[in-house]
Structure formats: structure tokens, C-alpha cells
């Protein structure tokens, strides 16, 4: 692998100069906060365990701070960018700062929520600084759409990181926690200070590591059926599962029958259940009178 030039990564002055040249101002609408610290992006790549044979997909590359650091370490990088101006500019930035690696870079100009295939080899890793307003749906969509992704490291709002990595029984354990755990072993992997971003956000950020399970929890229910139970259980999280699942099951009595058949107390609440227990409830849907199709 050809070594990049020492100044290949973007510093604060580089980021502002690029943004000014493009007429770009980070927008709150898209949750844009550009990373301006080279040490931080190298730390992210190191924490992600990016290997020389990895094909990495990055969502929301922005001006390319993390993209360049990923290109230092991976075999290939494919970036998915929704912003017209940023998507048009990134290939030129890569070519100018890492000409020897430019052939290993691909840009997909699209909304990540609509991407179901990528050019080149199947991605083995996902590394991204995700805007907090779309972080969870984008993460779940990518994990579902690209089963070849073995390792993921995302930088998200600290509160979102806590939710994703929460264990059953935690106050912040909920839909993101369970759904992420369907795909992967999830854990917090560090904190990121506000001063490494431009503009500096009003919230702290955290790193979340997801290592894909060899296979999803063993169940005869489909992912969609399991997720429908999860959505119903947390839609009214203060209620017991008997009450919270009444709409999903058709009645409170049918919900209780499904729960008992699954070996789960009807008086329990969703925040106490593992993903495997949700799967068992979904398996026992025959005890329910009807089901509402769940969203991802």
C-alpha cells in the first residue's frame, strides 16, 4: 500500500478553506458537524480495527476528513453522500490529497436510507460520523442491507450511543438497543469532545462498536415479526407487556397467552427483555388474534 503524504489529512484550516471554496455552511437540517482534527479521525479508524484488506463503507463523508483517514488504512472506501455539493467535491479532494489511493475510492451520491447495493467488493466494515437525527434508522438499514458488514464503528450523539449500547433493565434500553442487538454485539467504544468539530455541537458525541453476530438469534419468526413485537412493546413502555402488546395481539388476553407461551411474565415491561425473549414472543404469535406489520 502506498503511504499517503504527511499532510494528506484535513486540519481545521483545510476544512474551513474547502468549505469556503464550495460555499458550504454546515446545516442543522442535516445534522452536519465536520471533524477538523486529524488525530480524532485516526483514532476512529484505529478503534474501528480497519484492516488493509477491508472494504469500508462510510455514510455522510462531508468534506472528507474521515474518508482520507480510512483510505490510509483500508483496501477500498465507498462513501455515501446525500448532499449535492459535497458529493461533487469529494472525489477531487481525495485525488488531490491522496492521488495514489484515488483509484481505491468510490462515491455514491444518494440518501443512505435508499442504498441497497454498492459498487465494487461487498463492504466488510462500516465506519461513519452519523448525523444524530438519522443515526439509528441509517445504521439499522445498512446492517440489514449489507450482511457482509462484519464490524461497525459509528460516531453519534452521546445519548444515542447510550441507547444503542444499553442492556436490558437500563432506563435508556429501548427499540434501538434491541434492534441493534439483533444484528450485532454492541458496546460503547469511547467519547468524542465537542472541540474536534466545526461548528462545535451543543451535545457530546460517543463511539459505538457493533460486531455482527455469526447469525441472528435462533428463531422461527422473521426479523420483521420480531421487530413488530419490539415496536409494540416500547410504544407504551410504562405499560406491562400484557397491555402494551394488546394491539399487536388483538386483545390483552391474546397478548397474555402469547407471553405465557413464550415463558415471559405478562406483568413484565419491554425494558427488561432480551432480543431472544422478543423473538420467542413473536414465535408464539399464533396465540394472538392478529398482528400489525412492524416497521424496521
Description:
The chain is α/β, with parallel strands linked by helices. The chain has two domains: 10-210, Vaccinia Virus protein VP39 (Rossmann fold, 3-Layer(aba) Sandwich); 221-282, rRNA adenine dimethylase, C-terminal domain (Helicase, Ruva Protein, domain 3), CATH 1.10.8.100. It is 39% helix and 17% strand. It has twelve helices and nine strands. The chain has helices at 12-22, 38-48, 65-73, 84-97, 135-145, 158-165, 175-183, 223-235, 241-244, 246-249, 252-262, 275-283; strands spanning 34-35, 55-59, 76-81, 105-109, 125-129, 151-157, 184-192, 197-198, 205-212. The strands form two sheets. The protein has a seven-stranded mixed sheet, with helices on both faces. A two-stranded antiparallel ribbon has the order 1-8. Helix 2 (38-48) crosses helix 3 (65-73), helix 7 packs antiparallel against helix 8 and helix 8 (223-235) packs across helix 12 (275-283). The chain is elongated, with a radius of gyration of 21 Å. Residues 1-6 and 290-296 have low confidence and may be disordered.
